[in-house]
């Protein structure tokens, strides 16, 4: 995981006269292996720390370990959009597979497609991602920031406004963005406009609804798919995209719900034109119940092998966005 130094400086309040090399050494000492490569920081998290395979996760960890103030304001936001226009603009939308637990869509009109600003190109280049255009690049940047892959369709190329997430038909064909034509099986997941597949879920979009210079209206898709299902399809077809790697390992767990809003905000900032957010739509098929964990300070200190002041312990937990209350010990 490579994170640009300029991005870190925009989200963490470093002390004056900061010496990056000393910070890198301190992070490595504290368990987050860090080295500086040019203008980028290379982080090698432990395999069990999936929350650190995103820039936001890295920034949050640095904030906790080094006690630097952190600005990730979008994490605190709840709903991405107002859903009141749903009936006015959308046909039926259905999730007909057990391997998709949540889908979010946003329709933005009057977009002008053009090259990305240099700072976005530089950020993508830090992780060997080639710049394509402003809209596609924003989706790639948000994936690096949050760990949540997004896909963007040309809304006007959809043959139907009935969006269905389903298992593929046996031998169903789709030509993905790379130009490769695939023959699918019923074990694969697709996103379809009525019956026509517009995306191989979690792996690649279809060339048929790809963004080009004539695109003016876009449909942004953010979804949660079963890691096992995406990994199985990716391996069988021998197609390994950045998106499939994130989905296969559930890298998007901590910040996935913020990705769509982050993309919308960046589009407003970067893309010219009279952008109009027509509608956002969300469907959650698996309700996540709030988990309550009871734990004692004694247990925590025993596992960590160090003493912690109760106030410091509460500070760490709140940095991690846990809500908490103290009952006796």
Describe the structure.
It is a single chain. This protein is of the alpha+beta class and about 325 residues long. The protein folds into 3 domains: about 1-70, Phenylalanyl-tRNA Synthetase, Chain B, domain 1 (2-Layer Sandwich), CATH 3.30.56.10; about 85-285, Phenylalanyl-tRNA Synthetase, Chain B, domain 3; about 290-329, no CATH class. Helix content is about 30%, strand content about 20%. It has 11 helices and 14 strands. The strands form 4 sheets. The protein has a 5-stranded mixed beta sheet. Strand 8 (about 175) and strand 9 (about 180-185) form a beta hairpin. It is globular. Residues about 85-90 have low confidence and may be disordered.
Précis, in short:
Helices cover about 30% and strands about 20% of the residues.
Descriptive tags:
single chain, 329 residues, Phenylalanyl-tRNA Synthetase, Chain B, domain 3, 3 domains, 5-stranded mixed β-sheet, 4-stranded antiparallel β-sheet, 11 helices
